[in-house]
Amino acid sequence: MTKPPEPKPLLHDAEKPLRSRAHRRRDPEQPNLPFDPMPDRVEPCLALLKPRPPKGPQWAFEAKWDGYRLAVHIEPSGVRVLTRRGHDWTDRFPAIAAEARRLPVATAILDGEAVVFDERGRSDFGRLQQSLGGRGGKRMSGEAVLMAFDLLYFDGRDLRQTELTARRQLLEGLVPAGGEEAIRLSEEIEADGDVLLRIACEHGLEGIIAKDRNSTYRSGRGGEWLKIKCIQSDGFAIVGYEKSTSSFGGIGRLLLAARKGDELVYVGGVGTGFNGQSAAELREQMDKLIIAKPAVDTGWKRNAVFIDPKLVAEIEYRAWTHDGKLRHASYKGLREEQDSADLFNIDSRAPSG
């Protein structure tokens, strides 16, 4: 992967300063240009899942990060770190908040993803969760890094109606490339989308993001941003588990459900991806939610324990079977109840081949 090219100087002779002509002095009675009000919160722009990268010069590409979406508000009164659903997690990301206070800007809103890296430099959702004390934990994460990829407000100006290229230029001036601090730039990568996706998958990354350079910032999943994954990963409700005496936490397999319309439907199980700690924490939470009858029809299951489907697990999987079950599934962790706990909608599933 290559770094984006250095910006070209405005003048051929960089030693000569660029000077403008003198203008008439401003009338002191003339009012100052008013600042744009700073939004208290911005609903994030979300990436639309696509099977292949788009073509065309208007598309910019970045790595897809596997963590928690955050908005960092730098305000005159201090710094706030907000999750995707607007929960204030400033105290849980002290290193990110401290770095935000050091940025050379009076007011700003940075959009990015909090991640924790593994030994190979890949973002690891499970490690991020462990650094926060697991689902529902209250621990502070000193390891988390914000990979900043957009700038929504800057020194009194709302940038959401400004095209992505201009927002990125301002962001790169605020968060330079190649830094090692708690806030780092998610760099654009100059490459063909298909080639970049192949390289990302070979390096064990989750996938890539494509963004329309000419687009404004629009909340929701409007198609200005696209995500192309190497391995599918989505949220599924845990409706029970099968007990096992030879597995971590006594969990042989989790029983999973997806949303279909207003109902939940059974989509199979997952029995890999656990370690001793994650299985023990999961078993403790599941055993608080035991119910007598299953919330969905799972068919006959041996040694099954059914639970109220309030826990949402992040599951990696390769494909779907012809009868609508997950193939080659692996458990990644629990999503927070109040954040990023969207269930996969089976109506949006592509047909299995």
Overview of this protein structure:
The protein has helices at 94-102, 125-131, 164-174, 193-202, 276-286; strands at 48-49, 59-63, 68-75, 78-83, 108-115, 145-154, 157-158, 183-185, 207-212, 225-229, 232-243, 251-260, 263-270, 290-291, 304-307, 312-317, 319-320, 326-327, 330-334. It has 353 residues and is of the alpha+beta class. It folds into 2 domains: 48-229, DNA ligase/mRNA capping enzyme (D-amino Acid Aminotransferase, Chain A, domain 1); 232-348, Beta Barrel (OB fold (Dihydrolipoamide Acetyltransferase, E2P)), CATH 2.40.50. The longest helix is centred in the middle third of the chain and has 11 residues, at 164-174. The protein is globular, with a radius of gyration of 23 Å.
Q: Please compute the radius of gyration using only Cα atoms.
A: 23 Å
**Per CATH, which architecture of the largest domain?**
2-Layer Sandwich
Strand content bin: 25-35%
The CATH class designation of the largest domain is: Alpha Beta
Shape summary:
globular
**Mean pLDDT, as a whole number?**
86
User: What count of domains describes the coordinates?
Assistant: 2
Low-pLDDT stretches:
1-14, 16-20
Q: Which structural class best describes the helix and strand composition?
A: alpha+beta
Largest sheet: 7 strands, antiparallel
- Could you tell me how far the N terminus lies from the C terminus, measured between alpha carbons in angstroms? 32 Å
Count every helix, treating DSSP H or I runs of 4 or more residues as helices.
5
Tally of DSSP β-strands: 19
> Looking at CATH, which topology of the largest domain would you report?
D-amino Acid Aminotransferase, Chain A, domain 1
CATH superfamily of the largest domain: DNA ligase/mRNA capping enzyme
Tell me the helix content: 10-25%
SSE string, helix = H, strand = E?
A: EEEEHEHEEHEHEEEEEHEEEEEE
